[in-house]
Amino acid sequence: MASRVRPLNITIGAVCAVLTVVVWAAGNRPNPESPWPTQVAGMSFSPLRMGNDPEAGEFPSRGEISADLDLLSGKVKSVRTYGVGGTLADIPELAKSHRMSVGLGAWLTGNMEDNEREIARLIEVARANRNVTRVFVGNETLLRGDLTVEQLIGYLDRVRRAVKVPVSTGEPWNVWLKHPELAAHADYVAAHFLPYWEGIGLDDAVGHVMATVGELRAAFPKKPVLLAEVGWPSNGRTRRGSVASQSNEAIFLRRFLEVAQREKYDYYLMEAFDQPWKAGTEGSVGAYWGVYDVYRNQKFAFTEPIVRVPQWRFLAGASVALAAGALCMLLLDGGTLRGRGRGFLAATANGVAAAVVWVAYDYAHQYLTPFTITIGIALAAGFLGITLVLLTEAHELAEATWVTRRRRPFGPLLPVGGVDLPKVSIHVPAYNEPPEMMIETLNALARLDYPNFEVLVIDNNTADPAVWQPVEAHCGRLGERFRFFHVAPLKGFKAGALNFTLAHTAADAEVVAVIDSDYQVRPTWLRDLVPHFARPEIGFVQAPQDYRDEAESVFKAMCHAEYKGFFHIGMVTRNDRNAVIEHGTMTMIRATVLREVGGWGEWCITEDAELGLRIFEHGYEGAYLAESYGRGLMPDTFLDYKKQRFRWAYGAMQILRRHRRELLGLARTRLTRGQRYHFLAGWLPWLADGVNLFYTAGALAWSLAIVLDPRHVDPPLAVFMVPPLALFGFKVAKLFHLYRARVGATRAQTAAAALTGLALSHTIAKAVVMGLVTTGKPFFRTPKCENQPALVRAVAAAAEEAALAAALWLASAGVVVTQGRELPGALLWSAVLLVLSLPYVAAVLVSLTNALPVRQRLRAVLATSVPLP
Length: 869
Fold this sequence. Notes:
The chain is α/β, with parallel strands linked by helices. It contains 30 helices and 17 strands.
């Protein structure tokens, strides 16, 4: 088999690798544009370095400014400045040696005292330096609302009287049209043309600049129009049709320069160097308008064809290498996978690898602060978690759908002729259970078609004799095979009760079987399954949990559909690698093995799953038959349903903490690689639910910041928003496919299973967090609304989920209202918030379904029995 598998894996991997490179190449075809001229007319010049902040009085040194001018010397005729604070006032003097003229600017705000100092210094510097060819009194002060038109006119008139060079103020072109009275107090119209802020698409941007220049010339025919800022950002959130990227910045500027040369525009490109400090005043995009980055590296080609991602060859290679590693891990033990399954995993691995590489590349091009680094680490951890969950989900889908055969098939066995069947001791633990129900359970056991068994009923800590005494009496009527124990007090919960019965088990019993007190077993249960213990390596035999009351209500029909997925999909694939989860009902354990591993773990709230793992650690095998041999009763209420899943998830975390060294391969154990994988991968979605609790809290906080300060707080980067949506879509598609193909469920049952599973997400999340940080067994509070109307009970059972759903909906609406018109990323973030709300909405819907009457027809549709594999 290996000689056939290896070439197939290599072929599939090679084809996917080639396709990956082709996709990268197709998205990065060279785009020829007119070359950058030898010398441009002007550039906006803010020589601040990383860590500088003019608002805090932190300016570059004279040497750093001189080095920046030297970098631009010969490439730029004139530079425009924005203030004369600190060393910025030295720019004209330093520019002389580089034969560059200066458009000198004064930074005006609403602080009149600061403005007086700025104006005085501006006049002084302008008079002292002949290479100052024009003056800018303020920059976008009207746009920000720092000054009134009258105040700004007063400053303009004052400076015009004091200097001999042309004077104006810098404002966006539309502000000049809105306040035409400014022109009478300015020597020229200094207008800003930044199509990005207006949401203009790249292909229309230069034409938009030309059209608006024409409008200004028509409005002010006697004034020269200076394009005081013209530019495009290399990074930042998309605004309507405007996409910020390095390639788009390069394309826009090169197209503009071609037009400017033809139309003889006077202009300043926006701007020479990236200014990370602006992110605090303009949002993240404010940092990325430079032709050079903050470290003085040229950001794009001036003459060569423009490539969207110049490093695409390296990134494609990294994607292929990462995908190859992931595919090797996914196919490490994939000998039974068909070619289609291998191709699916290869495609998934390549897609995930490309996404990981792109996220790393994109985030590496952000200017990071300690805060953004912290946020980035958190988001990267979440992204890694999503990646792992996606790969494990894809692996399960492939192994459930595209295999040549099941590796370890188990079915009913006929006893070997001449071999005596071993004695079985059946243990039935109970606490405060209805006697009528238990009597039915015992009657079913009495009908077993098996010659040698005993039944031990252990009632622990039930206080009311009227509950347990009828069961005791019924055991007496059933004969000597049935023994009844009532013990109070008895520590250890169910595990303590099972250890008690183990101590009282018949000495000649070779197999211990356990069922819950509500289960009614088939007569053939022992006869069909006990023969598997003829193999000495078998430590336990497990049949699926199943239920008989799905027709009682729509709620129970939904629960029944949800349960089936695990027992007829997950357990089947886990059984292939001898890694099934043992359950405390419908299970059989070899008695010597049970004693060898130390009995039931009373420290763990899921003693059954923990026992199964210990049996594996001792080198024994577990056998799983995906055929129902007994049916019990489901929780009656949504609250009880949540309690059950809380216990399962909390117990899983207890097991993970106690057995972490064995599961991670750090301690000596007989666990196989496949067993460790399935236990860790199986709990990974629950761990993701726990992380999602913090993600939801962070998403609400982030959204609140957007609503309160939409100008300065942007939605998260799209590269971090798309993966959760993709994972959610993949999991839904996987569930629908496997339920239809492997469980045989109808569309209605599949939808019910999806809704019911989602409804448990918040409960699982809380259980995971508590299980990782607490050691005691949890207390699950029961709402005190039992006597209230059904609607009140339903809301009370899902009160937390309802509150979180409402908060997420309000946050989604708030983001759309404040930023949705301008930022497509805000709409995407709003969609993420709505997707985050779905588990909480599902919980409310399931709780209402449980509490309120539902049409009989719907109940019948959902309760239709699903044929078992």
